[in-house]
Specification:
By secondary structure, the chain is α+β, with helices and mostly antiparallel strands. It folds into two domains: 2-53, Arc Repressor Mutant, subunit A; 63-239, 2-Layer Sandwich (Beta-Lactamase). It is built from eight helices and eight strands. The strands form two sheets. Strands 5-4-3-8-7-6 form a six-stranded antiparallel beta sheet, with helices on both faces. The chain has a two-stranded antiparallel sheet with strand order 1-2. Helix 2 packs across helix 3, helix 4 (55-85) crosses helix 8 (216-239) and helix 5 packs across helix 7. The longest helix has 31 residues, at 55-85. It is elongated.
Length: 242
């Protein structure tokens, strides 16, 4: 991280020696780190053997900016959603094999576990995660299932590829996903995915409620406002990704 932070408006390109001096690392350490960062795409080396920030860093910066812009845009919608359903609401974005909470408006009395903005949660045992997975193409899901390590958070967690695939099929048909005590006992949720400009699922809006209140009648009441909020997210991303 120190190597990447060494770059700035006045230091957009540096040699190994300059990087070593700026970071205070031995030049052999800098050489090893820059080789790794170049291989991963976070740095690039030009013909003069100077190092620049790579495309990967630029993409990460763009994603953070885009995520914050989406949060700012959606915050009034999320507040309206919270007022309408009177339950905890979350804005999630897909990040690798997790969903990350970008915004959360919480009804505190239902909490059975500690979640906050920035929390990362597994895709396979959250309503938001399963809503996103249900719209991913088969190749993406198969690759995900090969690398994921299932963990039984509760007796209700889906922990096999077959069980998850069956749940995703149902979610795709319904247009939403549910988490019934799969992440934490006593906590349930329903989630609806939203999409980027290319039509790829990139996040979800979810509503959480205690298990004793959660039933299909409640899900039906939540769906229209959830879908309305998710559609607003998709429209924003469709108009602001260039």
């Amino acid at each position: 991280m120190a190597l990447l932070e060494a770059f700035g408006p006045e230091t957009q390109a540096m040699t190994l020696t300059e990087l070593s001096q700026r970071c205070g690392f031995h030049i052999s350490t800098v050489q090893r780190l820059t080789a790794t960062l170049c291989r991963l795409g976070y740095l690039k080396r030009d013909h003069a053997k100077r190092y620049h920030l790579g495309l990967k860093v630029i993409k990460l910066g763009y994603r953070v900016t885009q995520g914050m812009a989406l949060r700012t845009f959606l915050l009034p919608y999320l507040r309206d959603l919270f007022e309408e359903i009177d339950q905890t609401v979350n804005l999630f974005l897909l990040e690798g094999d997790e969903v990350v909470i970008v915004e959360r408006i919480e009804k505190r009395q239902i909490l059975q576990y500690n979640l906050h903005t920035g929390s990362g949660l597994p895709l396979y045992c959250t309503a938001a995660g399963k809503a996103i997975l249900s719209y991913m193409d088969e190749e993406w899901v198969d690759a995900f299932l090969k690398r994921v390590k299932f963990k039984a958070f509760t007796p209700h967690t889906l922990t096999t590829p077959q069980a998850l695939k069956e749940a995703l099929k149902i979610s795709r048909e319904q247009g939403y996903a549910v988490n019934i005590q799969e992440l934490a006992l006593g906590a349930c949720a329903v989630g609806v995915a939203f999409f980027d400009k290319a039509g790829v699922p990139c996040g979800a809006i979810s509503a959480a409620a205690p298990a004793q209140l959660f039933d299909m009648e409640m899900v039906k009441r939540y769906l229209e406002p959830l879908r309305r909020t998710a559609e607003a997210a998709s429209q924003f991303l469709g108009n602001h990704e260039d």
